[in-house]
Here is the input.
Amino acid sequence: MKVSLILTAAGSASARLGVLLRAAKALPDAEVQAVLLGDPGSQREELIRADCDELLFAGTFTPYCAESALPILQALLKEEKPSLVLFGPDISGGELAPRLAARLNWPCQSGVSALALEGGELRIVRGAYNRNLQGVFPPPPPAVLTLARGSFEPLPLLHGPRAALRSVACM
Here is the structure.
């Protein structure tokens, strides 16, 4: 299963990547690809230590403008064909995830608090009724998910380079 983690370079990208990695590591043998939108600047050296298979730098976009990132992500995901796309519990995830899912015609689940593979099938846990009820859902891949705030502790980044780096030119 190929999992794409989407995050923007704004703020502390390394901490947000750690949260997304923790969620992705719940899926054994997943091929994990992190996609960073924007210029990582001084965070680049820290981000390449991420415990993922590939780190993609996907060009620039207008910060805090979801519409500027959508064509980049749409083209990239059509080419890469992941089974699952994860967004963090931040403003970019809340804005980008449902819009991207609609453009790709994929299902979107928000507020995911746990991921698991059971019998080779993906199962997600998410809250309902203001998190007073937990439901288990089997989203058909490909799917777009946003994580629930506070559900995953950040995975620490490694001490040496781990991820294969690639810059992609979209748009």
About this structure: The longest strand covers residues 108-118. Residues 66-80 form the longest helix (15 residues). The beta strands are 2-8, 31-37, 54-57, 84-87, 108-118, 121-128, 133-137, 143-147, 164-167. The chain has four helices and nine strands.
